Amino acid sequence: MCGILAVLGCSDDSQAKRVRVLELSRRLRHRGPDWSGIYQNGFNYLAHQRLAIIDPDSGDQPLFNEDKSIVVTVNGEIYNHEELRKGLKNHKFHTGSDCDVIAHLYEEHGENFVDMLDGIFSFVLLDTRDNSFMVARDAVGVTSLYIGWGLDGSLWVSSEMKGLHEDCEHFEAFPPGHLYSSKSGGGFKQWYNPPWFNESVPSTPYEPLAIRSAFEDAVIKRLMTDVPFGVLLSGGLDSSLVASITARHLAGTKAAKRWGPQLHSFCVGLEGSPDLKAGKEVAEYLGTVHHEFHFTVQDGIDAIEDVIYHVETYDVTTIRASTPMFLMSRKIKSLGVKMVLSGEGSDEIFGGYLYFHKAPNKQEFHQETCRKIKALHKYDCLRANKATSAFGLEARVPFLDKEFINTAMSLDPESKMIKPEEGRIEKWVLRRAFDDEERPYLPKHILYRQKEQFSDGVGYSWIDGLKAHAAENVNDKMMSNAAFIFPHNTPLTKEAYYYRMIFERFFPQNSARLTVPGGATVACSTAKAVEWDASWSNNMDPSGRAAIGVHLSAYDGSKVALPLPTPHKAIDDIPMMMGQEVVIQT
């Protein structure tokens, strides 16, 4: 992932302004440590911090068309760039970068080319011929992007909030699947509007091989790389399928010819955690070179402030899950790896979270999956993007491939419904699609392993330790005044209050706090789905273990004492491991 920053239509073209833009761009250098670039045309500035994945030798940015009248700064990967180049035969490309097609597509099609891009992206395009510009973000918001407005009439765009929050009067998250155009008076236009977006119930019959084929295609296209890469492997269904498909199809790719045919896999967890055990087993089954990273509760607590600064949220479940991913990303990058494939998005598409067990009917089930996908940019996409890019590591998410989403979301949701009496657990349609007796993708017990949210799977005592630490730093009196101190998204727990204090120190603007979602949730549900079970209203916690009556190691949040971590019966054998150093086993 790269970092982009643009200031458009400002009132200052002085050297001091250029220096300020460079200073702000440097705040994004962790996203792109390989090279920096800046372009100025009058009162417009485009800056870029590059993480070189495709064409490391010549793909520096900003990028241009032939006569350099069109300028682009972009963060992302365009997987169909070779196909798009074939349709641009009259154009001359300056680089081999996959993003080089954007300026030329604009020349041919104007602003209507965005849906032609198959990939993940955020970009700013400046047309110096008439001083117009456009900004666009990918379909579901895999790449992060913010937009802001200055008092001088300027428009600001940045990959992260820290690039603009001090210089804008107002700023917000740029909506996924939209573009912003100066030609249309500076308004947003939705370019991504698939059939499932209106939330009407689809009726396509379930065909296992159609799901299998669509997902294999999504993984294979993401093997496009000129640098070393690997897969995140927690041992859960989603990451294991990504690893299995990658291992099957790696041989014969350009990446294999350059870096070798053996896949590297990575897993993180507390000593003895469910993910470490399952990840190792899957790695041995697939024959990957497996790297196992251990962290302690104290290691995670020590990193919380850095995590909140980089991930730019105070959402509890996002911080819980981002911290292990943040620690793991640093270790992965130290091994020379610059890109990883990950399993985000499956639970939203297939209703994999444990609370989906209580969906009352297929309409409610489908509408909840639609709401979850639309909100991904605020949660898992934000985590996967920013926790990895904090150390110049790129995460690719094949489950969020546009074509795969369309295929999976066109299914009659009756086939996705969880029916234990029929042997159908969560994500049954995905599991069944890859249940191949002749050439198994995974061991049966891994293929049918119960869903573990990432913040749970790294070790149940991780969340208990966070709650205990928060209780040491937030007292009852502070909580009694919470609604006055934080009237918007008032924290309801000491853990939430603790994260909010840290966030407000880094990002004190009202616009910043408005970028973070709020509302009631249980096991990562939306507020609407909380209505499915009356008992959940007394157990508001985003952990999967809050799904009482569903998770095998469920806990009743109303009975968990905050001052001390109280391990559940099911995790008595997992040591707390406080104060030990991080160790790497390769």
From TrEMBL:
This protein's record includes keyword Metal-binding: no
- From which source organism is this entry? Brassica oleracea var. oleracea
Please indicate if the UniProt record lists Ribonucleoprotein as a keyword. no
Q: Which residues form the Glutamine amidotransferase type-2 domain?
A: 2-185
Could you name the domain of life of the organism this protein comes from? Eukaryota
Q: Where is this site: Important for beta-aspartyl-AMP intermediate formation?
A: 344
The protein's matches in PANTHER family, at most eight in alphabetical order, are given as: ASPARAGINE SYNTHETASE (PTHR11772), ASPARAGINE SYNTHETASE [GLUTAMINE-HYDROLYZING] 1 (PTHR11772:SF48)
The entry's protein name is Asparagine synthetase [glutamine-hydrolyzing]
Name the active site residues: 2 (for gatase activity)
The catalysed reaction is: L-aspartate + L-glutamine + ATP + H2O = L-asparagine + L-glutamate + AMP + diphosphate + H(+)
